[in-house]
Amino acid sequence: MKIATILGARPQFIKASVVSSALKSAGIYEKIIHTGQHFDSLMSDIFFQDLGLPEPDYHLNIHSLNHGAMTGRMMEKLEEFLLQVKPDWICVYGDTNSTLAGALVAAKLCIPLAHIEAGLRSFNRQMPEEVNRVVTDHLSQLLFAPTPLAVECLQKEGIVEGVHLVGDVMMDSILTYQAKAKQTSEILVKYQLQPNKFYLATIHRPSNTDDSHRLSSILDNLTKLDFSVVFPIHPRTQAKIEKMGLSHYLNTNSILAIPPVSYLDMLMLESACKAVITDSGGIQKEAYILGRPCLTLRNETEWKETVEVGWNQLVQPETLCQAIANFTPPSEAPTLYGEGKASAKIAEIIGSCT
Ligand code: UDP
């Protein structure tokens, strides 16, 4: 069996690192195609180096374009390569333009498609990722859902065949790399960070970065918290901050702006911080798994379980300070994302589809 995996963005490299290793153990031959969506060393190369993900067999080098142009060019190149590779299955992750391009090409070439992290819904179609998720799920023959809620969302859209509740591959990643992070990461020492004495913030969704009033309000409110904020800045957020003339917020004692960090460093920051402030999908989950309270700067989330169990709160920039001051998550944190066996289950199911 030959599978072609299409990757392009940071969270996909992290998820694929554990699944690729499980596919290899199951004797499944994998070709990796990197679309280039995330391209610089801190957003791409570092994950391949640290996480033992095999080097991509093909690199399409497509990035820094608007959604339509990016997806279209990816489709053109992917079709070319997939016609050569002739895989039995195509595998895509999550909800990026690389996911969508891979799904559309799979459908056009009539190659069965496996979607890892299927069934997530924010129910906000203004969010580019939501459209990518819906289309990809409707084109997939195998849908690997991380949670019962994801299975339910698929059912409501009439998708029941090929759906497998396997748990979340990010749980597998954390369990796989947590010990290595503790042994090798020097990030806490490098920035002289004391456990529970800093907040960790990440912001990159267009709904937060593309409006200067909203972005300046977020930065302004980050400066008002009771502890300083470590802020590994996504390149597009950095570019927006510079373009909007908001860089002065980064030169205060309250915000420690640092370049994007490796996954191992991120696990350490997430584990040691007092709370996480984010608009990331993956980081909401990681905060929960690592037992840190999370404040999500969004109107809705596709990771609703974390809110329902009381460990994640949706907040607005203006309510952040108040929300943090009053936030006491419950002592219980039920298992929401599986036992860390999602990758093995995925490999087994794909392997059984001859
Ligand atoms: N991440 C990282 N370094 C960073 C910021 C994030 O390794 O500087 C990891 C994080 O731990 C998580 C993933 O990247 O596993 C989340 O990616 P991102 O927030 O870019 O995307 P989203 O999950 O929102 O799609």
From TrEMBL:
Its EC number is 5.1.3.14. It holds the Pfam family Epimerase_2. The keyword Disulfide bond does not apply. Keywords: Isomerase. The keyword Isomerase applies. Residues 26-350 form the UDP-N-acetylglucosamine 2-epimerase domain. InterPro entries: UDP_GlcNAc_Epimerase_2_dom, WecB-like. GO terms for molecular function: UDP-N-acetylglucosamine 2-epimerase activity. Belongs to the UDP-N-acetylglucosamine 2-epimerase family. PANTHER family: UDP-N-ACETYLGLUCOSAMINE 2-EPIMERASE. This is UDP-N-acetylglucosamine 2-epimerase (Non-hydrolyzing). It comes from Plectonema radiosum NIES-515.
